[in-house]
Amino acid sequence: MWPPPPAPEPGSSPLSTESPENSCCCENSGLPGLMTTPSETRSSRMRVLGLGWRGPTGTEPGPGAQAAYRLRFRTCWLWLVGVPDTCLSMGLELYLDLLSASCRAVYIFARKNNIPFDFQFVDLLKGHHHSKEYIKINPLKKVPSLKDGKFVLSESVAILFYLCRKYSTPSHWYPPDLHTRARVDEFMAWQHTAIQMPMSRILWIKMLIPMITGEEVPDEKVEQMLAEVKNSMQLFEEKFLQDKMFISGDHISLADVVALVEMMQPMGGNYDVFLNSSKIAEWRMRVELAIGPSLFGEAHDRLMRLAEWDSSTLDPMVKERICELLQKFK
Amino acid sequence: MPLELFLDLYSPPCRAIYIFAKKNGIPFEFRPVVLGRGEHLKPEFLKVNPLGKVPALRDGDFLLAESVAILLYLSRKYQTAPYWYPPDLQACARVDEYLAWQHTAIQLPATNVYLCKSLLPHFSGQPVDTVRLDRLLGKLKPALQHLDQEVLAAKPFLATEQVSLADLMAFTELMQPTAVGCDLFRDWPRLAAWRARVEAALGPELVQDAHKLVLQPRDPRDAQQDPRLAQELVHRLQERLS
To answer: Which regions are flagged for Pro residues bias (chain A) (predicted)?
Structure first.
């Protein structure tokens, strides 16, 4: 749950000394007599629970997150030993990998608005979005996904609207005024193909494809992609931002969060799209400030550390598909 | 000044807006923008929509682009029947989910099929590149499969039990390649049944009226009117479809 509950009394629960690195924590519960579930079901349930979860940044979670993790497992332990699902309230779950811009938008929004949720890490670099367990959540194999009781929702834009409405977040996020709201809708529609796609492609072309295949994408294609991004940034400045503080006017909205996290994507490959426009650079600073620099930094940590990833651990089948992708650019 | 809608009925999102406005009795001035003559790129239109795309809306001083945004604006301003964009939290989320997903999953690949099958041959004078067409149809297949096998297995329309903005957008997009001879419904029975339901819900006459233009074969002489423009379009299309 987020925000995390207070840490439990020491020794009050068999799981209270859990360390997040322990991928089989429930086997060390010290209550062997209660483990009546057949081990196969139990281990598949453990996989669904994302045991071995390393938190949003892919490294050891901070103390707040660790407490949340312990609460989750106290609840989940009951499920492991066969207590029916209906007896447990899992609360809101967000299936995320912060490497993905759309996941960062949802994460930042939920955290900023103190919306309690369970962070379910779906490690894209390990191909977990293709696992049997995740396909049951989202057959389209994409992140982010939201699970609210039995209700499952995909698409970050839809998830953001859902969270706004369900948790009655402050109105500036999705303004009620007809025209102002339309401005947010307009950007949210345009960005799928004009911002998200090209920004993500830059990361692939500049970083992931060379890293994984050992080969560079031909210069001509790179130039073409960069020109497309430059054009989109120009349209963003001239049409969506203009001389306003934020996209919808004087206040930050969902549109700014979505825009900024997507423009950050090429940073994972050391490509800075903010260099060419002081107007956009200033807008970026305003958005980061409004979100909170610490939350913004935390959300982008995994992306900024992408260069450290050991790509030799990549599943060979996935590597083959990426090599095929490279051929398309040649 | 009345509401103005800048449309070319060759474009699926324009048809969606046209059908929605007519169906809901929303009074508007139809401002034609002929894509085939490059009118969407001319300075006059760029003043209305600097993104250089149709559809676009002008309501007094207020300008708006993007079909999804325009549909939501019209549904709110004219307080159309709730089933188009339901008030229920989860039902509304399903419509939002489709409207977000469809940009890259349906609109992009379906448009590419249409461009390969109809527009490129029309402007280049060359026959359809069937190898490329098959490849582009292949890209659309996973989305059609998802709609037919997963989404429509559970309900009669894409988001809820009734027709909504999701069905309207999907219908006009899937009709695009279908209208020029690539029947997207042929291999997908649930999708075909859904199509009939949507047509009945929108009104067959209105659907026919909106699709009249795209259903007509193009006149080859149109392409020769401005050879320079035709050449530029062919070049852009080749790049986009490669």
So the answer is: 1-11
